[in-house]
Design goal:
transcription coregulator activity; 4 helices; nucleus; 171 residues; 2 domains
């Protein structure tokens, strides 16, 4: 399945694609790894944008150096431009990955089913009696802890109700 890499904006044509012999080695897994790195770059850029905006003072009458303002504004614009490029790259990687894996017969299932959907039964191996007993004990402990927490929440709710009632009577 010889497929070219997605065109990346901003790179010269000789750096956009590997040599023709390397095209056979490109797999969806490799593209997903590049996509993962791209998502990490997106998160890093976004964090940097938030740090720049947090460090920027609001214009509340305090005179700030125009050069500092222009510098921060330039950095912010560059980060936003790079962020847009990274999102385009991610979109291209996604589309290429979908294109490369469209011939797979297996349809991925959702991890969390929608309301009203039937749950797909998972085939499980029979467990030993010890494992079944341990599971039952854990379930009983969880049920007991849930009951204890419910009692504590009810007590806390009643206590807060009493405190609020006393505070309103005080006014």
């Amino acid at each position: 399945m010889a497929a070219p890499l997605p065109q990346l904006a901003g790179l010269p044509p000789q750096q956009q694609q590997p040599p023709p012999g390397a095209l056979r080695e490109i797999s969806p897994v490799f593209l997903c790894r590049i996509g993962q790195e791209t998502v990490q770059d997106i998160v890093t850029r976004t964090m940097e944008i938030f740090q720049i905006t947090r460090a920027t003072q609001l214009p509340n009458g305090v005179t700030q150096s125009h050069a500092v303002y222009q510098d921060r504004f330039g950095k912010l614009q560059e980060h936003l431009r790079q962020l847009a490029l990274l999102f385009r790259k991610l979109r291209l990687l996604y589309e290429r990955c979908v294109e490369m894996t469209s011939d797979l017969q297996e349809v991925p299932t959702e991890l969390v089913p929608y309301v009203g959907e039937e749950l797909v039964s998972v085939r499980s191996e029979p467990c030993s009696p010890g494992v079944i007993q341990e599971r039952q004990e854990v379930l009983e402990k969880v049920h007991q802890k849930n009951q204890e927490m419910k009692v504590l929440m009810d007590q806390m709710r009643n206590l807060l109700w009493d405190v609020n009632a006393m505070l309103t009577l005080r006014k």
